[in-house]
Amino acid sequence: MTVQLMQRLLERPVPATIVVVMALGLTAWGVAHVPRSVVLFMLFQASVLLLYFSRMPRGLKLLLTVIALGVLMPVLGTINAYYMEIAIQVGIFVALALGLNIVVGLAGLLDLGYVAFFAVGAYSWAIFGSPQANLIFGGNHFPLSGWWFFVFLFVGVGVAAGAGILLGLPVLRLHGDYLALVTLGFGEVIRVLANNLDKPINITNGPKGITPINRPPIFFEPLLRALGIEPNPYVIYPLYLYALVLLIVGVTVLVNRRLEDSHIGRAWEAIREDQTAAQAMGVPLVRMKLLAFACGASFAGAVGVLFSAKQIFINPESFTFMESIGVLAMIILGGMGSIPGAILGATVVTVLNLQVLKGFSLWLNELRNAGTVILGYNLANLPTQLEPAKYERMIFGLILVLMMIFRPQGILPAKRRVRELSEP
Amino acid sequence: MAVLLEARGVTKRFGGLIALNGVNFELEEGRIASIIGPNGAGKTTFFNVFTGLYVPEEGTVSFRGTRLTGLRPDQITTLGVCRTFQNIRLFKSMTTVENVLVGMHARVDAGFWGTVTRNPPWRREEQTLWSRAAELLDIVGLRERANELARNLPYGDQRRLEIGRALASRPALLLLDEPTAGMTQGEARSLMALLRKLVADLGLTILLIEHNMRVVMEVSDHVTVLDYGEKIAEGRAADVQKNPRVIEAYLGRRKWTPRAETGSA
Q1: More confident residue, B239 or B264
Q2: How much is the pLDDT for B259?
Q3: Helix residue ranges, H only, B69-212
Q4: What confidence tens digit (pLDDT) does each residue in A178-234 have?
Q5: Which of A396-405, B203-212, B249-258 has the highest average model confidence (pLDDT)?
Q6: Is residue B68 located within the same domain as residue B86?
Q7: What does pLDDT average to over chain A?
Q8: Which of A255, A363, A424, B93 is the least crowded, having the fewest Cβ atoms under 10 Å away?
C-alpha cells in the first residue's frame, strides 16, 4: 500500500521532487542533530536512493545528486567524521565494483583475483610516495612530494592496465571454471609477491607493510586562509579525499557508460553471450578480451593509488582473496552488467559491513552490559562469540544465497536500452 | 564470371573420422549455390573450414585469391565472408538491433579514445551504424521487433535475424547453414525470394547448406553433393537430381525411380 503510493508519487516529476527534497532535507537535518544515530544516516542514504528511482528532468536530478553528495554529505561528514570514512570507503568500493563489472558483467570473464590490480595501484604509489623507494634505488631522493600523487593516479592506471593484459594473455583460451581458477591464482600470486618481496631487494617491505605514505598536498590552503578558514588537517583531509574519490567515481561511471553504449560494449556482451558466434561476426576475441581486462584493471589501479594515500600505511593483508570475493559479491548483489547495480551493491555491502553489523554488535553489547532480560534470558550470559560483527561473512553468504533463490538477476538488473530507430 | 571462393584438396579429420577427404570446390561470383548431402556428410565441417573455425589438415581455401586457411574467423569476416549457424547462435540477451550492430563490428573505424571521449567522428559513425541497422532490419522484416530480446523472437524471426546480422558485416559471400530448417513451406519460399533479391540488389554471392529439396531445386544455380566427406556430384540442380550416385547416397542401393523430392532428412 505505502510502497504503491510511493511509486505513484515518484512517477510524477513535481511530487517526486517534493518528496525527494523533503526526504533529503529531513534526514540530513536529523543526522546533523543526532550525529550518532546510525539509523538516521542510513535513512539519508536511502533518500539518495529515492532520488535515483524518482522520475524528474535529468538536469534537476543531476543537480540534486550533486547537492546530496557534494554538499550535504561533506557537511554531515564534518559533524561525524566516521560517516566521512564510510563515504570514502563506499566510493572506493563503487569504483572497484564498476571496474569488475566490465570484466565479469559485460565481457563475462569470471575474475576471482581482481584485488590484485587494486594492490598493484596501491603499491605503485606506496613505494614511491614513501621512503621505501630509497631502499630499492639507493640515495635519498624519496619520498616523492605529494604533487606526484596526481601523476601516480595515471601511473596506477597504466601499471594496473599492464597487469590486466599480463593476466589476460595466458588465460585467453580459458573460460568458465578454468578462467576463474587461474585468475584466483593470479590474485594470490600478487599478494604473496607483496608479502615476500622484502628479500633480496626490499621492494614491498614484506608483511610489515609500507608507511608513512605521502598524501596529496592541500594546494587550496591559501584560498581557505583567504576565506578566513583555519585549515585543520584532521577535518580537511577526509573532505579532500572524499572529493577525490567522488571525482574518480564520476570518471569511472562516465567511462563505463560510454564504453557500454558503444561498439566496444556490444562486442563484450556478444563475447559473453556466445564467443564463437561473436568471432564469426568479426569481433577480434583476443583484442576485445585484453581490452576488457585492461579497462577493468585500470579503475582498480587508480583507486588503489588513492587507497594507499588515504591509509598512509598498507600491507598485503589489505589485498586478500576475500576482498576479491567481496567485490564480486557486490556486483552479483547489485545485478551483473548493470552500472546502477554495481553502485548500489557496493554501497549496500560496505554499509552492511561498516555500519549495520558493527552497530548491531555495539547495541547488543550495551544490552549485555546493562544485564537486560529478554524472554526470561539474561543477555549478560550471551557468549561474546555471538557478536554479529563476527558473523559478517556468514550473514553475507546468507544474503547471497537468498538473492540467488529469490532474485538471481540482482537488485537492479541491467536494462536493455530501448531506442527508437529513425525513419528510413 | 570470376571465381570467388575456391577450395583445393581440403581434408579435415577428427581422430579416425575423415570428415572431409580432399574436396575441391569452386564458387563463381553472383550465384546462389547449394551444398547438399545426407546427415554427417561433412557439409557443416566444410563451412567451418571456410570461416576459419576449423583448420584443415590438408588443402587450402582462398577467397578472391587471398588464402583464408590459417586466418582467424574475425579476419575472414573482415575480408567479406560471413555466415549463419545451423543451430541458431544469436546473442540471446541482446536486442534485435544490437545483434545487427555487433555484426557491424568489423566495419567500425572508431578507436578506444574516440569512444571514451565521444568525439564528433565517433558520434557520426554511431549514427551511421544505427541507421544502417534500421535498413538491414527493414530488409529482413524485423523493424518492428528492433527492441525485443533476441531470445523472445519466434523461431522464423530468429533465423532471419541471423541473416540480418551476417549481412551487417557487408559480406561479398554469405554462407547460410540450413536457413529454412524448421520453417513452413511458405516461410521458406519468402526467404528464398529474399535471398534472390539480395543477390540482385547487393551483388551478393550465396552458398547454402539445405535439406529442403524443393528450395534447393528452385533457388540454386549450382549444386554440390557431399557424402562421407567426398564430393560425389556437382552441376545444375536438375542434372544432379538424376545422378545415380546421388540417389544412392540418399536412398541406398535399391532400384528407385528419381522423384522431384528426394527425401530430406
Answers
A1: B239
A2: 54
A3: 73-79, 96-103, 112-117, 120-139, 155-167, 185-202
A4: 999 999 999 999 999 999 998 888 888 889 999 899 999 888 888 888 887 777 878
A5: B203-212
A6: no
A7: 88
A8: A424
- Tell whether B193 is covered by a domain: no
**Which residues lie across from B23 on neighbouring strands?**
B10
pLDDT at B263: 44
Cβ-Cβ contacts under 8 Å, B108 against chain A: 263
Q: Is residue B63 part of a domain?
A: yes
Number of structural domains chain B divides into: 2
Establish if B216 belongs to a structural domain.
yes
Residue B149 with chain A: CB contacts under 8 Å: 416
Other CB atoms closer than 10 Å to residue B94's CB: what's the count? 21
Q: Mutual orientation of helices A285-311 and A148-171 as an angle, nearest 10°?
A: 140
What percentage of chain B carries pLDDT values higher than 90? 67
| Residue B61 and residue B90 in one domain | no
Whether residue B208 lies within 8 A of chain A, CB to CB, comes out as: no
Residue B46 lies in a domain: yes
Domain boundaries defined on chain A: 1-79, 85-330
Interface of chain A against chain B, CB under 8 Å? 255, 258-259, 262-264, 266-267, 269-270, 273-274, 276-285, 291, 416-419, 421-422, 424
Domain CATH code at residue B108: 3.40.50.300
Instruction: Give A281's contacts in chain B (Cβ within 8 Å).
Output: 74, 77, 82, 102-103, 105-106, 165-166, 168-169
Q: How far is CA A309 from the centre of its chain?
A: 16
Q: What is the mean pLDDT of residues A291-301?
A: 96
The pTM is what?
Answer: 0.90
User: Looking at beta carbons, which residues of chain A come within 8 Å of B73?
Assistant: 276, 279-280
Model ipTM over 0.85? yes
Domain of B140, in residue numbers: 81-170
Residue A22 has pLDDT above 60, yes or no: yes
Of the residues A256, A281, A418, the best mutation for testing chain B's interface (the one with the most B CB atoms within 10 Å of its CB) is A281
One-letter identity of residue A423:
E
Are A106 and A292 within 8 A, CB to CB?
yes
